[in-house]
Amino acid sequence: MAADRKLGCLSIFLFVALCVSLFVNFLLMITALQRFGGVRGEIEPIPRFREVLVQKGGRGVTDKVVLITMRGLISSSIPGSVSDSMVDDMRMALQQARDDDRVRAIVVEIDSPGGEVTASDTIYGALVKARARKPVVVYMDSLAASGGYYVSCGGKFLMASDTTITGSIGVIIQTLNYEQLFNKVGLASVVFKSGKFKDMLNGSRPITPEERELVQSFIMKTYDKFLSVVAKERNLPADLLRNTIADGRILSGKDAFGNKLIDGLGELDDAFAKAKQLGNAREAKIVKYGPPFSLSRFFRLFGQADSKIELQLPKQLIPQLETGRAYFLPSYYAP
User: Fold this and answer.
1) With contact defined as beta carbons under 8 Å apart, do 198 and 208 qualify?
2) Which residues are within 8 A (CB) of 293 and not within 5 positions of it... i.e. 6 or more apart?
3) pTM listed for this prediction
4) How many domains is the chain built from?
5) Which residues contact 51 (CB under 8 A, 6 or more apart)?
6) What sign has the CA pseudo-torsion 117, 323, 171, 193?
7) Given 120, 146, 152, 168, the catalytic residue
8) Are 92 and 52 spatial neighbours (Cβ–Cβ below 8 Å)?
């Protein structure tokens, strides 16, 4: 009897193992076919974000308000959920919401200290395109400063809480000067360059007056673009901004409202209500975009099973600014 029981358990185990093996091989076959199709030059479809229900709508109502979230440092070097970067993720999510006829309005929730100049401008442009088709309400969470505020200006209606940190209208480039450290340890930097400005941010020597003037000129031209965006979108005189709050200072949501940088104060639910009002869809359901199922992500879980376990802070919490890149960031985020 005991032998029969062991044989039965072994049979069940082997049957389950066979099923798992067939399933994995099936997935591998699909992946191989997809790659083969890509080699043949077929155009892959644009990945679509899956919808996750946040709030139910009225019975039988198909209208939707989409919530799109942007958190952390704005950078083209940060991987996205469905694309190569978080910047492309934002563009694709906004395009999906813009092209969906059932989406009546968009809420973009921002919790970001800012980031790269070009990345911020790209997302801002995507918001402007989206609002040309549908109302876009921007809700600033705990932090929407510098590049975070730059992006926010692409919305039709800007909202924040009283305690939101925003503002910080400005541009920063940083480098390190380690000349004295090199002298102490007996190291010297040897540079071969094609022009006198090619290594102008070289930290092994002092910056020259010409280099300082050139970098500062670039900073001010980029700042003027930031200023012009705020002045145009908020309908405020550029000179007034330049001489008052557009000097890099941070503002609370309450102060931002008092200085007309935003349109209203409230919480995320208030942003949902405003979006429904602007979209003429008071019974619409609220959905948020999540990453779609991906075979590569599925297999990545197996690939990481044998890897070592490390405890580390996310890079977005301790952003390391790259030398030579221009950023829309508050000064306290420039380590």
Assistant:
1) no
2) 50
3) 0.78
4) 1
5) 64, 66, 287, 288, 289, 290
6) negative
7) 146
8) no
Q: What is the pLDDT of residue 9?
A: 62
In 3D space, the residue among 310, 332, 270 whose CA is nearest the CA of residue 146 turns out to be 332
Instruction: Choose among 288, 268, 312: nearest CA to 81.
Output: 288
Does residue 41 lie in a domain region? no
Residue 271 lies in a domain: yes
DSSP at 333: G
305 backbone dihedrals φ, ψ, rounded to 5°: -65, -35
CATH code of the domain containing 100: 3.90.226.10
pLDDT at 311: 37
**pLDDT score recorded for residue 319:** 52
User: Can 198 be counted among the known catalytic residues?
Assistant: yes
State how beta strands 115-116 and 327-328 pair. antiparallel
Contacts of 19 (CB under 8 A, 6+ apart): none
Could you tell me the two tokens for 318?
């301790």
Q: Which DSSP string do the residues of 130-142 spell out, in sequence order?
A: HHTTS-EEEEEEE
Q: What is the DSSP letter of 159?
A: E
Evaluate whether residue 177 is within a structural domain: no
DSSP for 95-111, please give it.
HHHHH-TTEEEEEEEEE
Answer yes or no: 308 catalytic.
no
The whole-number pLDDT of residue 138 equals 98
- Asked if residue 37 is part of any domain, the answer here is no
Active-site residue identified among 198, 221, 232, 315: 198
Domain that holds residue 72: 50-171+246-293+317-333
Low-confidence ranges of the chain (pLDDT < 50): 36-44, 300-318, 335
